[in-house]
Amino acid sequence: MRIYKENINIGQTPMGNELSVLKYTIDSGNSGKTIYIQSGTHGGEITQWVLHELFSYLQNNLKRGKVILVPNANPVSWLQRNYFSTNGKFDMYMGKDWNRNFPGNEQGSLGERIASVLFAQARQADFVLDLHTSRLSLPFSIHFNKEMRKYAEVFGLEYNQFIDTTIKTSYKDTINASLFAVDVPSLCIECGSHDAYEPENINLALDGIKRILQHFNQIEDISVAQICKKQIFYDKTITYYAQTGALLRFKKNLGDIVHIGDELYEIYDNNDLGKKKLGFAKHNGILFKISPTHIYWSGDEILQLINT
Ligand SMILES: [Zn+2]
């Protein structure tokens, strides 16, 4: 067992400080597959809880091949702090999602240069996991090509989304879709909620990673948990939007099964003090994503349902 730490340069700040990402290589010393796992493309998405646990586990359990860990794939997005919130979803310089720059361009924008360095690392692996979080959310996997569904089945979360990049074309520029274009299989894992510590969800992600390592014969651990009994695969989600600017209070929780006519949230309109209105479900589904705020402008996303 050997562990290497390497700083990879991704650019330079205007003040001349080096920008770099830290890469860990955990090498079993035996031949086998290489798995690349990255966290932190988007600022404030603290999936590194999973890597802290995984690192200790690998030191004792990795039998074959290598695991590459990049805990903070984008140090720039983590600088986007405002009071107590870190919201590094978009490159503020050009308004672009940090995960829409792949496969990158070493002569391009800062985001494309970072993507280019990460992509060069990731594409050398036999399998890639890109870890994220999403608002207030249940954990779920995303695959961008139907051929990747088999890995979502191995990872074993309950909720598994397929995003068709021929319809939602902007997703073509994610790391996962770009890796598929060069024949490297991968999954995106949404590990739970933004800037949260959710021990159950951390364990779900960790168990999924162990099943992937088991699948590629990198570990031999009979105690690895079984996959979720009832996996749900979906491609359609329904988004509810605020019809008017207002304050909202939710009446349902993540994971709740929702029926048409159910009360989903209370609406407090400041043009009508003392009266609360209700937002009702217009679909049957599972509440899997909630916007992490009470404050809504007209047209803001409130929640997402998996249509059942
Ligand atoms: Zn993300």
Q: How would you sum up the global shape?
A: globular
What is the CATH class designation of the largest domain?
Alpha Beta
Helical residues, percent:
10-25%
Topology pattern, helix = H, strand = E: EEEHEEEEEHEEEHEHEHEEEEEEEEE
What do we call the CATH homologous superfamily of the largest domain?
Answer: Zn peptidases
Number of helices: 5
As laid out across the biggest beta sheet, the strand order is 1-2-4-3-9-13-11-12-14
Number of strands: 22
Hey, roughly how much beta strand do the residues contain?
A: 25-35%
Instruction: Give the CA-CA distance, first to last residue.
Output: 47 Å
| SS-based class | alpha+beta
What would you note in describing this structure?
This protein has 308 residues and is of the alpha+beta class. It has helices at residues 48-61, 110-122, 149-155, 175-181, 199-215, and strands spanning 2-12, 18-27, 34-38, 66-70, 81-82, 85-86, 90-91, 96-97, 127-132, 136-137, 140-143, 159-162, 186-190, 232-234, 237-241, 246-250, 257-258, 263-268, 276-280, 285-290, 295-296, 301-307. Strands 1-2-4-3-9-13-11-12-14 form a 9-stranded mixed beta sheet, sandwiched between helices. Strands 10, 15, 17, 20 and 22 form a 5-stranded antiparallel beta sheet that branches. α1 (48-61) crosses α5. The longest helix is centred in the C-terminal third of the chain and has 17 residues, at 199-215. The N and C termini lie far apart (47 Å). Bound molecules: zinc ion.
